[in-house]
Write a structure and sequence with these properties.
Layout: H1 2-11, H2 17-27, H3 34-47, H4 54-77, E1 82-83, E2 86-87, H5 89-115, H6 119-143, H7 150-175, H8 180-204, H9 217-220, H10 226-233, H11 237-249, H12 254-266, H13 269-288, H14 295-309
Antiparallel strand pairs: 1-2
Length: about 300
């Protein structure tokens, strides 16, 4: 990871001083870096103890560049002033510059693949970007009517969140030139982890402590998450109307939001979401079972456990 950080910083260099100032700010406020870690662990689990090639580092850098670009753009779209406890780029440098920085990172990632003729890696990440955009739009479209079924919810989170983690795992396999079947297997493994990751994120909205994001923020933003969908599906008609009315017209009323959260807990919405999250975890673990024991496989298992047990 230390070597990756050096290579990643170099990949973000520009001839424009302002870009370098902003990208330096971004690099120094990095998050958990879970995505490049997935690339490396999958590559090592498949390849073994041999040193990793530059191609694997490029794959991880491309993933991190694209992921960072989407976060920068998300903050503009959501009009968010904070990211990981620090000011977002749009808060410090305004929207126009933030959009341009996101575009710059996106093109840097694409060019890194093209310059090294890693067209197979480029295909993986391009597919992920397309799916992520579709997922966001699908969520916006459905949120207007609040008519998200459980199946539509899974489709949204598969595209919006799981697809990038799937791309990380596919990238790890592809970067060490694994077989087509193995790349697809790892892509599916990543997708399952991504589904569990997003359901865990949804559960934070119902937490007591101030972890990750404030309680009730998804309800405030009229996001239909799994615990709420479950509650709507199992509520009597009058209670269902009350829930929809609360989310649509009273989502900034703190007392009302607390009542919605209490009702969702009461009817078992959280328990249901936790069960579904753990189902995805079990399915993912089954997929790497055939691989021989190694420190890389052990670390992957720890990463999956972290996704489920993390506190923010």
């Amino acid at each position: 990871m230390e070597l990756f950080e050096k290579k990643f910083s170099n990949s973000m260099q520009s001839k424009v001083a302002l870009f370098n100032r902003i990208t330096h700010y971004v690099v120094n406020r990095k998050g958990k870096q879970m995505r490049p870690m997935f690339v490396f662990l999958i590559a090592k689990m498949i390849q073994g103890d041999d040193p990793l090639s530059d191609r694997v580092y490029r794959g991880a850098s491309v993933i991190e560049l694209i992921h960072t670009a989407t976060l920068v753009h998300d903050d503009v779209v959501d009009d968010s002033n904070k990211r990981r406890g620090f000011f977002s780029i749009n808060a410090l440098w305004k929207n126009k510059i933030a959009v341009l920085v996101g575009d710059f990172m996106l093109s840097k990632g694409m060019l890194m693949c093209i310059d090294n003729e890693d067209f197979d890696l480029l295909k993986i990440i391009s597919k992920a970007v397309r799916e992520m955009a579709e997922g966001e739009l699908l969520q916006i479209d459905k949120a207007r009517k609040l008519d998200i079924t459980e199946d539509v919810y899974y489709e949204i989170i598969r595209k919006k969140t799981a697809t990038l983690i799937a791309a990380c795992c596919a990238m790890g396999a592809q970067s060490v030139r694994a077989s087509k079947e193995e790349v697809q297997l790892m892509e599916k493994f990543g997708e399952l982890i991504g589904m569990a990751f997003q359901i865990k994120d949804d559960l934070f909205d119902y937490g007591e402590a101030k972890i990750g994001k404030p309680t009730g923020i998804d309800i405030k933003e009229q996001k239909m998450t799994l615990p709420l969908i479950y509650a709507l599906n199992h509520a009597p008609l009058e209670k269902k109307r009350w829930l929809i009315n609360s989310v649509k017209n009273h989502n900034t009323d703190k007392k009302r939001v607390r009542e919605v959260i209490a009702y969702v807990k009461e009817v078992g919405g959280l328990d249901y979401a936790i069960k579904k999250m753990k189902d995805y975890q079990v399915q993912a673990m089954e997929m790497i079972k055939p691989y021989p024991d190694s420190p890389y496989k052990d670390s992957l298992v720890l990463m999956v456990d972290y996704v489920i047990d993390r506190k923010k």
